[in-house]
């Protein structure tokens, strides 16, 4: 086993350190954030930082770097209060990754990478038509984290659109059946293979594998 | 495609809604949090809410529910300022899941589920010996999120211990080669199969698949 200390980390070349530290959290979600500004210019950006915050109310968080590429996304969310989160499948992962290029603010990534805008009545932000699981949010809170000036955006889920193929009677959505991919590090995309769903754990009780 | 609205979500039975909403963020990281209180009683709890916050300084966030199972973890982190994050592999995912049972505060999950404490000089919190990628943190910030009273814990990475098999010359750690698993929903565990690592995206430039 290799043992790296704070000094080793500090002395690494900047890009290598970014690749290393971005690998540590484990597998990450792969989502496209859809938004538009108040003039109607749409934006689409891949993020790997979406995380679950709570089910009731249904809240989702994401982290945006103040100097990072999805800065148009943040600006649009501030303008309209609306955004969508769209799962990335293996069919579209290269197009999704391409949205991380630094396009000008007045250029829509939808057109540039070849993905299709889709609209739902009452939602300003565009969905990704090609996505098999997607939902819209209304922003609830935008906070700058003092430790390193990153921005945390928290939204409440309003509309969920999901391929019925993934819906399980107990509420679980089988995102593997929907071919949602996962990200490791800054640039690696992965499909998944289920080991099992496990039963609710109790002290002194054997776990069951759910059917 | 199925379309669910706020009303549909509100009317769902509570556990079904939790399963549904927990499926939406996409694949999640699978980590064991190691800690101990100031009397030396150790604790281990699985979390799927660890997320990357920044590489320099190397910062990691995680979300803890105030009434959730890892409340001993939060109490220990407040007491000692120290915790470890340990990747879960397919060898130990059932033991890792079992740590989510509600054991008493004076019972160590290490012994109950059959995982081994490992210590590094200068770090109070125990690592998981069986884990192939693990790191220690010193707490930097504990914040209660006003939207739903969940707790965000932010720590700075101090020691990284990683199987050299996973280390790539460019800094990336191949967590798939280390057999790190990923979680979907509340209870589903998955191995991964790489599609590709993709090159840094630039406008008007074709993506390359990295070797």
From TrEMBL, chains A, B:
Keywords noted in UniProt: Flavoprotein, FMN
Membrane-spanning ranges: none
Cofactors demanded by this protein: FMN
Keyword DNA damage: no
Annotated GO MF terms: FMN binding; oxidoreductase activity, acting on the CH-NH group of donors, NAD or NADP as acceptor
InterPro entries on file: Flavin_Rdtase-like_dom, Split_barrel_FMN-bd
SUPFAM superfamilies, alphabetized: FMN-binding split barrel
Pfam families referenced in this protein's UniProt entry, alphabetically: Flavin_Reduct
Signal sequence segment: none
The keyword rRNA-binding belongs to this UniProt entry's keyword annotation: no
Domain Flavin reductase like: 32-164
Protein family (similarity comment): Belongs to the flavoredoxin family.
Protein name from the UniProt record: Flavin oxidoreductase
Protein species of origin: Shewanella hanedai
Organism phylogeny: Bacteria, Pseudomonadati, Pseudomonadota, Gammaproteobacteria, Alteromonadales
């Amino acid at each position: 086993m290799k043992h790296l200390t704070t000094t080793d980390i500090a002395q690494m070349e900047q890009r290598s350190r970014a690749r290393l530290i971005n690998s540590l959290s484990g597998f990450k979600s792969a989502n496209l954030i859809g938004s538009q500004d108040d003039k109607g210019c749409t934006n689409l950006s891949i993020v790997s930082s979406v995380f679950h915050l709570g089910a009731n109310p249904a809240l989702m968080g994401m982290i945006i770097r103040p100097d990072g590429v999805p800065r148009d996304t943040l600006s649009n969310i501030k303008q309209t209060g609306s955004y969508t989160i769209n799962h990335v499948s293996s069919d579209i992962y290269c197009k999704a990754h391409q949205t991380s290029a630094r396009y000008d603010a007045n250029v829509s990534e939808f057109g540039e990478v070849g993905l299709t805008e889709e609209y739902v009545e009452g939602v300003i932000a565009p969905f990704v038509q090609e996505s098999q699981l997607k939902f819209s949010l209304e922003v609830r809170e935008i906070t700058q984290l003092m430790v390193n000036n990153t921005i945390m955006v928290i939204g409440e889920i309003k509309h969920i659109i999901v391929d019925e193929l993934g819906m399980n009677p107990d509420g679980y959505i089988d995102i593997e059946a929907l071919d949602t991919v996962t990200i490791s590090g800054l640039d690696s995309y992965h499909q998944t293979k289920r080991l099992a769903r496990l039963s609710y754990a109790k002290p002194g009780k054997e776990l069951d594998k759910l059917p």
